[in-house]
Design brief:
The complex is a heterodimer of chains A (about 325) and B (about 280). In chain A, about 40% of the residues lie in helices and about 20% in strands. Chain A is an alpha/beta fold and about 325 residues long. Chain A has 2 domains: about 160 residues, Thiamin diphosphate (ThDP)-binding fold, Pyr/PP domains (Rossmann fold), CATH 3.40.50.970; about 120 residues, Rossmann fold, CATH 3.40.50. A 7-stranded mixed sheet of chain A has the order 3-2-4-5-7-6-12, with helices on both faces. In chain A, strands 9-11-10-13-14 form a 5-stranded mixed sheet, with helices on both faces. In chain A, helix 8 links the parallel strand 6 and strand 7. The relative contact order of chain A is 0.13. Chain B is α/β, with parallel strands linked by helices and about 280 residues long. Chain B has one domain: Rossmann fold (3-Layer(aba) Sandwich), CATH 3.40.50.970. In chain B, about 45% of the residues lie in helices and about 10% in strands. Chain B contains 10 helices and 7 strands. Chain B is globular. Classes of the chains: A alpha/beta (about 325), B alpha/beta (about 280). At the A-B interface, helix 4 and helix 6 of A face helix 5 and helix 6 of B.
């Protein structure tokens, strides 16, 4: 993928907000002193009157966004995943989730690819936390095209949405001209019948790479991009379970409570097949360059290939 | 206000207090103490101060009220019911399975409730968000938030105060019910938030300090709030927890406990006597 364009999905988020604001006057943005990093600064530059910095006070920001949404505005509230989903969990749960308010949470710097900042900032628990809130949509895009389409879909959806974006640049593989995004719908990127690899976020590009390597090794892997963790595309997962008989899940998240457990929960009840979960095991991350950390934690194509080969023995 | 207006408010406040007793007695649970301390305030807001329409609870131009101290929902419900948002007869269904009167306010179930609250410290932030949005949209509605004096021990309250001042939310009026008691005891013994007015002034608020059971003082404070431009306004009102029911007054044990049959009878007898006295005035 040497000459493939790479863009961090947080960049896509900032750009999409700006595009969305041009079409919709009710879009406003809240940030908690991280506008430069979350890229809501891109929006702020174009629409300074519609961007409200809340300072370093994420709990207040979430409840402020909730209040603003009751007045007919569509607030996007942003911080790092650790603080948006972690620190402000209870505000999101009680002031946004319980009243089912129309607030969109744009959380950047999800997962261990935050890199050098280390474990305090590497949120691998956000899918688990947000999935547990009734009515909350939980998504994470794989590339720039999907990220921008997701932000627009989140605006169109009435109700609370949590979106996780990444810090590091990831390959752009979708063709923007022929692309449509729908909340709750997965996407088959490679057909296969021996094993289904269900991934999201930056693990999708790794899964695609793994799918090609496995094909050469005689293993037919179905590669699925599952951008929406909740509501899960049950039909697509069950079809994969029935037709492939084995599932590998890949996420830049703890193996506890995220995409892997969502898939396990579904198939164990409706179509029991063996599942192997690739993600961050029950441990904290640490400082290091993102690429090296991802390899160290097994969040890479090589590890997916290894697991798939062992699984299909 | 005229003497007859004031008398009418006192009569209504007495009915609101009866509604608090009916609700908590019907629920066999709930929070009468802080509902009664704020009963006069609820009454003034819904019968004099706020622009609302009980026939159209979601009217866009209405003023908003956020009960940040959400556990005193019985007081809010009693005021809303007396104002005509829903039948007074429904108050005893409080906290029952299937009732639209949840233990803490739910904006999607109860007509007239503008924000779901209950987790302390969050309502004030939501109110600030409403005030910001109203300004952003050029609406001239006002936003009111009622907080407990124990509630302001929550750090988020002060994040919201900072926010309200930073964004010059002069359409926001914060009221603090200083009844001096929280679940575990006196607020100055549990975790003193004193001095409250000084803290608010340091956060950039214009402040009025009043007796929360005196309608003349309540009226003057809200008038001053409306005249204040460029900064948010706070009313710190000294109140008596459990006000109006003799055995509940200033008793921390009545923070979150329902009256039994005998206590219910005494409370209603006392309130009916107060009502008769007021009506005879």
């Amino acid at each position: 993928m040497a000459d493939v364009k790479k863009i961090a999905t947080r960049e896509s988020y900032g750009n999409a907000l700006k595009e969305l604001a041009a079409e919709h006057e009710d879009v406003i943005v809240f940030d908690a002193d991280l506008a430069g990093a979350t890229k809501t600064g891109t929006f702020k530059k174009a629409y300074p009157d519609r961007h409200f910095n809340c300072g370093i006070a994420e709990g207040n920001m979430m409840a402020v966004a909730a209040g603003a949404s009751t007045m007919g505005l569509v607030p996007f509230a942003s911080s790092f995943a650790m603080f948006a989903a972690g620190r402000a969990f209870e505000q999101v749960r009680n002031s946004i989730g319980y009243p089912h308010l129309n607030v969109k949470i744009g959380a950047t710097h999800g997962g261990i690819s935050v890199g050098e900042d280390g474990a305090s900032h590497q949120c691998c628990e956000d899918y688990a936390l947000m999935r547990s809130i009734p009515g909350m949509v939980v998504m994470s895009p794989a590339d720039d095209v999907e990220a921008k389409a997701m932000v627009k879909a989140a605006y169109e959806h009435v109700g609370p949405v949590y979106m996780r974006f990444g810090r590091s640049a990831v390959p752009v593989f979708h063709d923007e001209a022929n692309y449509t995004f729908e909340i709750g719908k997965g996407e088959v990127l490679q057909e296969g019948t021996d094993v289904a690899i269900i991934a999201n976020g930056l693990m999708v590009a790794e899964a695609m790479e793994a799918g090609k390597v496995l094909k050469e090794a005689g293993i037919s892997a179905r590669v699925i991009n599952m951008a929406t963790v909740k509501p899960l595309d049950e039909e697509l997962v069950l079809k994969a379970a029935q037709e492939c008989g084995k599932i590998i899940t890949c996420e830049e998240h703890s193996i506890l409570g995220g995409l892997g457990e969502a898939v396990c929960g579904l198939v164990s009840e409706k179509c029991p097949v063996p599942v192997r979960r690739i993600g961050v095991n029950d441990e904290f991350g640490h400082s290091g360059p993102a690429a090296a950390l991802l390899k160290q934690f097994g969040l890479c194509a090589e590890h997916i290939v290894e697991v798939a080969k062992d699984f299909c023995k | 206000m005229t003497a007859s207006e004031k008398k009418q408010l006192m009569v209504t406040a007495c009915k609101v207090r009866m509604g608090v007793i009916e609700g908590t007695y019907g629920a066999k649970a709930g929070h009468p103490g802080g509902s009664l301390s704020a009963a006069d305030l609820f009454t003034y807001l819904y019968f004099k101060e706020m622009k609302v329409d009980p026939k159209n609870p979601k009217w866009e131009e209405r003023d908003r009220f956020v009960l940040s101290k959400g556990h005193t929902a019985p007081g809010l419900y009693a005021a809303l019911a007396n104002r005509g948002f829903f039948p007074v007869e429904d108050l005893p269904t409080l906290r029952h399975i299937g009732s639209y009167l949840q233990g803490h306010p739910n904006m999607n179930e109860t007509p007239g409730v503008d924000m779901s609250t209950g987790s302390l410290g969050q309502g004030i932030s939501a109110a600030a968000g409403m005030a910001l949005a109203a300004k952003h949209k050029g609406m001239d509605c006002r936003v009111y938030a009622l907080l407990g004096d124990g509630e302001i021990e929550e750090g988020q309250v002060w994040e919201a105060m900072m926010f309200a001042h930073h964004y010059k939310l002069d359409n926001l009026c914060v009221i603090i019910d200083n009844n001096g008691l929280q679940i575990d005891g006196r607020i100055d013994e549990v975790m003193s938030p004193y001095p409250i007015p000084e803290k608010l002034r340091a956060f950039g608020f214009e402040v009025a300090e009043i007796d929360g059971h005196d309608f003349d003082q309540i009226e003057a404070a809200f008038a001053k709030a409306r005249q204040t431009k460029g900064v948010p306004f706070a009313i710190v009102m000294k109140t008596t927890k459990g006000k109006g029911v003799s055995y509940m007054e200033n008793q921390v044990g009545w923070h979150g406990k329902a009256p039994n049959d005998e206590e219910y009878a005494i409370a209603m007898k006392e309130l009916k006597a107060q009502l008769a006295e007021l009506e005879a005035m």
